[in-house]
Amino acid sequence: MLGLTLSVHDVSRPDALAPFSAVVKSRAEALVVLPDAFLQEQRGRVLEHVARVRLPAIYANRREVTAGGLVSYGPDFIDHHRRAASYVDKILKGAKPADLPVEQPTTFELVINLETALV
Prior knowledge:
single chain; alpha/beta; 7 helices; about 40% helix
């Protein structure tokens, strides 16, 4: 429909990060970096490699953008934590956790690093 081809690359080990060679070989035109504990831990290296291969990348967390990434779109974690605190408050006041509704994020943010965009 959109003429896009999805190419999935497993980057779950430090040696898989090294050259991002599979991404380059696949002639990717952009990256979607999913929120993953390993990639969060390796944030600096990921940003360095993405900058080296000069691909636009979108992240799920504003931390990557403030550290030099291009763009992020995802839940507003400050709001998310504030809402979690209200749950803790309700539980401490006697509410049963099983009686509380499950909530999904309702506030999302788009963050663009203009300095990175202009490079």
